[in-house]
Structure formats: structure tokens, C-alpha cells
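Mods, move this if it's the wrong board.
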Amino acid sequence: MKFGVMIFQGGFTYPQIKELWLMSERLGFDSVWAYDHFSQLGDCLEGWTLISSLAPLSENIRFGLLVACNSYRHPPLLAKMASTLDIVSNGRLEFGLGAGDAPKEYEGYGYPFPRASIRIEQLDESLTIIKKMWTEVRPSYKGKYYSIKEVRSGPRPIQKPHPPIWIGSLSGKRLISTVAAKHADVYNIRAFNFDDYIRKMEIFKNSCERVGRSFDEVEKTIHVDFVIARNRSNLEDKLARYAKFKGRSVDECKKRIIYGTPDTCSETVKEYSDLGVQGLILCFQPNKRIEDLQLFSEVIQQIA
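Not the wrong board. C-alpha cells:
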């Protein structure tokens, strides 16, 4: 199984984010991520600018946005941005994209917020254009929402045929899972527990069948909240603080996260692996500290 860290950049300063980014590489994580929000989760640094500044500081760890919002950047521009960053990072970019789902943020920044089915149709067209720009010479495409015409798209990404495409979804519903079945190299969902993961994968398996794609061809990953502590007494204290941060009861939080000591967290991760999860991304929110990464690195060592 591969492991990543998603830094929720709102609530951290740039020096703190840089430390977390570099520490993730030193501790053996496979990937490090930021999110693509402008204000929905509070004041924060813009995602593409942030990862572009951090990528040259690391050497081996892969990185991306989990996931970029399709609505915020015109698809041909986004393709060019991603190509550039893949070249700058010597082929380490993981390209995450989603349909977007932050209506107050759209409204605040002046973006139209069409219904979900239209945003997902736009995502489908966007990915078609982006893949063409990454793999074809002078590609053209005319869709309902976007078009390109004999565009000069070079230089193309280092990674061939292109950077891995991650499609992200919180809901895992049929429409977005169908786009993932068509385009994704990696499908990333929010998994609250084992049953939630199984349910969402059944939907995805049906979507793969509809579009004629092998379910096994797409890498399955999840992003999860976590609470980890060295011992049981510290764990109870951290769970109480996490519950307060989330505004939920401790019992409710336990149903939605991975929690425990390194040993018990390892058991949970192994169960996810047995269910077919191939990658796990930790949501590193402002209530977390470097110590939490260090403790979870022990889980990585046990799984490896």
C-alpha cells in the first residue's frame, strides 16, 4: 500500500507547510498533497502556486492537489500548468481533478455554480481536452462546454503517456464514478469506514462495467481523518480534542476515522488493504502536529 499526506493548508503558515512537506518525504510517505480551495475552509494559500513553490524543495516524493477544482481554471490552461510542473519536478506530479462542490466559494469568487450533473459533464470534457494536449500534436476538440483548435501544447509532460490522473469524489455517486471509470488512473474517495468503502466501490465497479473498463485497471485510494497516539491514555485525550475540533461526539468521530496506537492503526490499515485499498492519504488538518506524522510513519514501517 502507498501512503500520502494531504496538508490542509488553511491554518498553517508557509514555513509550517514547508516543514510538513519535507518531513513527509523524510518519514517515508509516497506522496504529499494540498487542497484546492480559496476560502471554503478558511483563509489559505492558493493550491497550484503552493505546490509549485514546494516541489523543487523535495527530491523524490510525489505530489499534487487532492483534488484540483475543474471549474477554477480553463482546461487548456490547466493542462499547460500541469505539464510545466511535471517538467519542473522531473516527473513527480500526480494530477488530481474533481467537479467541485463549494457553492459559497464559487459565489464569493464569482464563478458560476451549475448543478452537479453539469459540473460533472464539464469535468468529462475537461479531461478529454487535457489528455489530448498531453499526448497529441496540434489537437482539436469541440465540446458543449470547452474547445481547442490545433493547439500548440508542447512541451508535453515528462511522464508518459501523461501524469497519473486522479479523480476525486467525496460521495462516490454514479455520475462522478462514471467519469472516473472513463478517465482515471487512480480513483480517490472519502472512506468513513469499511462499509462506506465497500458501498462506494460497488458503485464504481458498476460504472466500470458500463463504460467497458476493467475495474482492476484503476488504482483505488482513500483519504481519511486519523487520530494516533503512543498509548491509550494519550489517545483518549487526542480523540476528545479532535471531537471538539470537528464539533461531534467522540463516539460519532470513531465511526468516521482511523484511530488508535501505531499497532492498532496498522491493523485497521491492513483491513483496508484486504478490501482492495491500494493507497491511503492522511488528512493533516490544523489540529495535527509533526508528532502525528512521526507516529504514523511507524504504521508505514509495519505495513511495509
